[in-house]
Amino acid sequence: MQKLRYPVDAKPPFGLTLLLAAQHLLAALGGIIAVPLVLGNVLKLPTPDTIVLVNAALLVSGIVTIIQCQGIGPIGLRLPSVMGTSFTFVAAALAIGFSEYGVAGILGSSLVGSLVMIVGSFFMPYVRKLFPPVVTGVVVMMIGLSLIPVAVDWFAGGQKGDPHYADPANLAMAAFVLVLVVALVQWGKGIFSAAAIVIGILVGYLVALALGMIDFTNVNNADWFAVPQPLHFGLAFPISGIIGMSIAYLVTIVESSGNFLALGNVTQTEITGKHLRGGVLCDGLGSALAAVMSTTPFSSFSQNIGVISLTGVASRYVVTIMGVLLVLAGVFPVFGALIVSIPMPVLGGAGLMMFAMIIAAGIQMLDKVERSKRNGLIIAISIGCGLAVTTRPELLDKLPSFVKEIFGSGITVGSLLALTLNLILPHEKDEQA
Questions:
Q1: pLDDT greater at residue 124 or residue 51
Q2: How many CB atoms lie within 10 A of CB 300?
Q3: Domain containing 310: what range?
């Protein structure tokens, strides 16, 4: 295991902290605004309403990230965990949004459903016992494997089917950033290695600017200042919506637990039931705050685990400052628009490396697991089925919607299978694979 440059409680110099915080911001910002943008576009909301969703997402992400890192009483993981809007809730949100209840129904259902996470958090010390190393290793592996398709699309410059998807220019730009980040991590000293991702993205951005690859339309159209608008859409409480959101919250508990365990691995911190309880409680309360502030529910971001794994910067102080930057992005939308102007291939070059490092962390964890037929079955079946859903999501298209809601994530499928198989398969202590 690599030596951490800055452990969890370290405080780097302020100038360096800002640079390292920007590194996390670059990794997370696209994911934070993606969910409100998708909902706004699919539900055909007026542009001002979509902006309300986006600004609130940035503002609340920053607040919840700060609390998750620093903690308030029993609330918070007290590790460098980045919080943001979650795609786990999109299917349920769209189903409610197209009904008579609209966005008010989404937010009201989210507010009531958050009680599932808030109440569930107090059972996390018992849940922690269900995650021995073989299960934790599988979960960490699936987090990394599930993120690789995202990085590949960034690398290629968009979504499959886009006219410029996988253009040689996009691939060349992404490969350039990838090589630069690898070189900085391997041979850079001090700040050049610790801030390898943000330096690589900054250099890639400047090259893309020189080549005319950057679109400043969103920057020009963004407001300089925006006031948060609590209860902008109002609240409604459809029973079917509350049930759908509650199921999504149950799935999020599993995914967040996996992210927290993966974060513990890369920060070299032993994750206890108390950690999980504080982290999930913060997640649930943050989602309740998000509903009141007019945006969608939250969960922890696995992208930023890759940043820590790659750079060895595990300081929660750094991610706290990143939370402050998110708050500023929510209040000054032009700041967020400037970050979003970074071309996808530039992000893809760094993202592919970050997410692959999470896979490597999972492999290292599984390497320490006893080599037995039982453990081999747990690992093979869990990862195989998790990848099946990740690579072919249409596998679930003809099943009932609630099944797709629960098992639509490869992380969830892999995690639940590993948990279940570990409980039901008999131990074979004397049998070695």
A1: 124
A2: 30
A3: 14-369
Residue 226 lies in a domain: yes
CA–CA separation, 62 vs 68, rounded Å? 10
Tell me, yes or no, whether 408 lies in a domain. Answer: no
Counting the structural domains of the chain, the total is: 1
380 belongs to a structural domain: no
Average pLDDT over residues 328-339: 80
Place of tokens 């309403």: 49
pLDDT tens figures, 369-402: 988 999 999 999 999 999 999 899 889 888 887 7
For residue 429, CA distances in Å to 39, 370, 380 come to 51, 9, 19
What distance, in Å, lies between the first and last C-alpha atoms of the chain? Answer: 25
**What is Dmax (Cα atoms) for the chain?**
67
Query: For 211-229, b where at least 16 C-beta lie within 10 A, e where not — what string?
Result: eebeeeeebeebeeebebe
Three-class SS state of 298: strand
Nearest residue to 308 (alpha-carbon basis) of 16, 21, 11, 14: 21
The tokens for 414 are 């892999």
Pick from 83, 105, 91, 84: nearest CA to 39: 91
